[in-house]
Amino acid sequence: MPDPFDVKLEQLLEFDTPPGGEAFVMDVMRSVKRQQRVRQIILWVFGVVGALFGVAGAFMLSGPVSNFMTGGLSLPVMKTMQATLFIVGAAAFYLWFMNDDFSLGE
């Protein structure tokens, strides 16, 4: 004999008729498409704003970077090369030690 609780639960969960038919489905699909458009517009707007800030930052840094490249800061070349080598070596050791994997999937 089935459990009366299970029978009552099945009665509550079953549908006699579809909840809205074709019109309901079409309305839901329209709403989903509208929300996708809104999300796409938001992503484009924030992407363009981010790109503008990136370009502005590049223009602001172009002067100091050109001074660095032409030797305007008069940094010692050997010390700069050693510091760069040390930083790259530390990053390589960290990646090896932590076993980081940058693959995007299979």
Describe the protein in words.
The protein is an all-alpha fold. The protein has one domain. It has 3 helices and no strands. The model has no long low-confidence stretch (mean pLDDT 81).
List the main descriptive attributes of the protein structure presented here:
single chain; elongated; 0% strand; 106 residues; 77% helix
The residue ranges in which pLDDT falls below 50 over 5 or more consecutive positions are none
Query: What would you call the structural class?
Result: mainly alpha
Beta-strand content: under 5%
Rg over alpha carbons: 31 Å
Principal-axis shape equals elongated
Structurally, how many domains make up the residues?
1
List SSEs in N-to-C order.
HHH
- Distance separating the two termini: 51 Å
Helix amount, in percent? over 70%
Main β-sheet, in a few words?
Answer: none
Number of strands: 0
Task: Give me the number of helical elements.
Answer: 3
**pLDDT averaged residue by residue:** 81
What's the layout of helices and strands?
Layout: H1 4-13, H2 21-70, H3 77-98
Summed up, what is this model?
The protein has 106 residues and is mostly helical.
